[in-house]
Write a structure and sequence with these properties.
60% helix, DNA-binding, 7 helices, 3-stranded antiparallel sheet, globular, Arc Repressor Mutant, subunit A, homodimer, alpha+beta
DNA sequence: GCCACTTGGTAACTTTTCGTTACCTTTGCG
DNA sequence: CGCAAAGGTAACGAAAAGTTACCAAGTGGC
């Protein structure tokens, strides 16, 4: 166990991958960042990310909240209102993600479109 | 199908995610980039990424090759020699990944270690 | 009053992906 | 001969993701 910790400490890319290397985390962060107000309700996110199932969105948000990248605010109303936003740490990550997006834009032509769509 | 294409075209982050949003791709790119010569053989990669199974490494490399991020050179010797290296496009991606790593280093203390190790 | 609809989920079940183990080929070493 | 090395692939079980159904507590229409 101690060597696993050491390996992770020594290799920051593994921290990145383990925190949001899954299929939906990056997209959640990106979508929250794109929002005008910086705050989005659960179903609002769901509509923006229509190809992500409700279960996976819920799970991904929970994970991001635990990693302190996303803030979750519950308003005890009926129907319930739950608002999600980026934490300061989450915001600090966005420039790196933006760099990735810029790369994707620039090199889009270098790959075949059908490979992207599975 | 046409709308799926349009959605992907309109949202470059999805291109990034669909190309190397899986568990091992980023780590392969990173490991290749860290190598002194820039060239690594299959089992050399495997030793560096000991927690990735042979099958997944093989699959990941095949995928990266199809996306033109990794070059695969086969030497018809016995025992076979297969060398992997980053393509120019693969190399062009590294600054963005390095930015992610720098972010991880800086914000490491903001998350709890046990969350990283699953 | 009654039905339909909304929100933010969770439980159960199915499908897809991942990981593990075994195996293949050809050659060199002892 | 018998084993090891290289770079894989095939088959199978486990884990993760996707799908569908359902929940509570209202609100609006009729």
């Amino acid at each position: 166990m101690a060597d696993i910790k050491a390996a992770y400490l020594a290799c920051p890319i593994r921290q990145v991958i383990s925190r949001f290397g899954d299929k939906w985390s990056l997209l959640v962060l990106y979508t929250l960042n794109e929002s005008d107000t910086g705050v989005m309700r659960f179903n609002e996110l769901r509509r923006q990310m229509s190809d992500c199932s409700q279960k996976m969105l819920s799970q991904t948000l929970k994970n991001l909240e635990q990693n302190n990248l996303v803030h979750r605010e519950v308003y005890p109303e009926v129907p319930p209102r739950v608002e999600y936003s980026l934490t300061p740490i989450g915001k600090s990550l966005m420039p790196s993600i933006t760099a990735l997006i810029a790369w994707a834009k620039e090199h889009f032509d270098d790959v075949v479109i059908h490979q992207i769509i599975i």
